[in-house]
Amino acid sequence: xxxxxxxxxxxxxxxxxxxxxxxxxxxxxxxxxxxxxxxxxxxxxxxxxxxxxxxxxxxxxxxxxxxxxxxxxxxxxxxxxxxxxxxxxxxxxxxxxxxxxxxxxxxxxxxxxxxxxxxxxxxxxxxxxxxxxxxxxxxxxxxxxxxxxxxxxxxxxxxxxxxxxxxxxxxxxxxxxxxxxxxxxxxxxxxxxxxxxxxxxxxxxxxxxxxxxxxxxxxxxxxxxxxxxxxxxxxxxxxxxxxxxxxxxxxxxxxxxxxxxxxxxxxxxxxxxxxxxxxxxxxxxxxxxxxxxxxxxxxxxxx
Length: 303
Description:
Layout: H1 10-23, H2 38-44, E1 50-56, H3 62-77, E2 81-85, H4 90-102, H5 106-111, H6 113-116, H7 135-151, E3 154-158, H8 165-179, E4 185-189, H9 201-219, E5 222-228, H10 241-244, E6 250-256, H11 258-261, E7 269-278, E8 284-291, E9 296-299
Parallel strand pairs: 1-5, 1-6, 2-3, 2-4, 4-5
Antiparallel strand pairs: 6-7, 7-8, 8-9
């Protein structure tokens, strides 16, 4: 039986808490973990345990943004990450990651995916003329080898119609055991699929967000839940999601920036990321550019 911890008032715990603060020698600009996007890190005060909700219209790059964010947190902090996907296969997610890391287009990698998958976690393909592969494959392989240390921290899990929150929590705990840590970051793409399909999307998202926020608190980890905004009326202000998903600790709404997009070459897009709720930092909007061919987001300078 676990030893019972005596109940102490805040005043009784104050001295030990001050000692703990005094031992913290590192001067930090933010409280949480770096996102790899400096302006976003400062606005959010870093990534902390809790539920982060990312909303945006279809095909605006939500999945690519979420995967890049997860990868950057893992790389900066040697922190395991788990990406749950209801839509994209592990193969597709890996191709996008390698496109971002290598600067090779997704379509180029797909053309040679059989060779690629030989050294990226899938069954070996048999080539009789490897020496005639284009030099770009060497670049791709080098990029993957350089990233292997932190890619070993990332787990891709394909979800199906039977996946529920309990299974997701069990898999998060399993990753924690494998890596011998309780410090894990999680992304759940298309999180609305955890809800009752008979309900409206808005109601479904609200219920799923309630459940995921409780899971984030229970596991003491950051969870980034990604969900599409399927409403046809784009005149609705992003701030409406604060009312639709009140349990989320942070709500990020992604929107195309049509004026800035005109200055970019197609199919590249300019996007605004609205921070409409933030329990520990700023609210406002940040500018990003999305390069779909490379599944890469770049933070634009504030205007």
